[in-house]
Amino acid sequence: MPKAGRLHVILVRTRNPLNIGAAARAMSNFGFDSLRLVNPYTAAFREARSAVGASQVLKHAREFRSIDEAVADCSLVVGTTALRNRKLQHALKLPAAAALLIRNRLASQDVAILFGSEKTGLSADDLSHCHWSVRIPTVENISMNLGQAVAVCLYELSRDGKTQRRERIELAKSGQVDRLTGLLLRILSESGYVKPKMEESTERKLRELLRRLKISGDDAELLQGMLRQIGWKIGASS
What we know:
By secondary structure, the protein is an alpha/beta fold. It has helices at residues 17-30, 42-50, 56-59, 67-70, 95-106, 124-127, 146-158, 174-191, 199-213, 217-234, and strands spanning 7-12, 34-38, 62-64, 76-80, 92-93, 111-115, 132-134.
């Protein structure tokens, strides 16, 4: 069993209190207790929390305004997607294979698994915060209910399995990567590289690029120092 306290289940823009409750119950069933919600539908979150017999998971759930705040302490961020006709910019894995990698990382670092809203799932911008994604295969490419998807992923994680060798390098936490992304974007904007009205798409591409590089925490701090010096020289604010 992985170190459950290091795994954070993150629900993004959830609207149905029953789905929030089902996700919390699945977490309790499989021994996980850190639930985070990003911009949940307020009435749904309030109703779920006030439900009779609400689990400890739900009572201690944390609310965040943005994904980058919710995953700032995590070195691995995994998205979930039904895929359909979407083209992803990073790797897509099945639950069993993903579980092996996540269990390995949980031995020493925090991991987040993101689940999107019932209606739209995770957006391209949401997925740009992820290192890779998981797809649960279903018949005719029909997406699963949110609570069921959480249960399937956590079941795979809770299974006994041979873990891969621990990584010796402490990868950068998501907060470090986001700070590096912001700093790099400001310098590129000041240099004229970023075209007008392209800041948002450029930021997303930079975020995806830095996650694919899998830099260490030490390297992230080193790069930030270099970029701050460059920014100071060219007059970009840092």
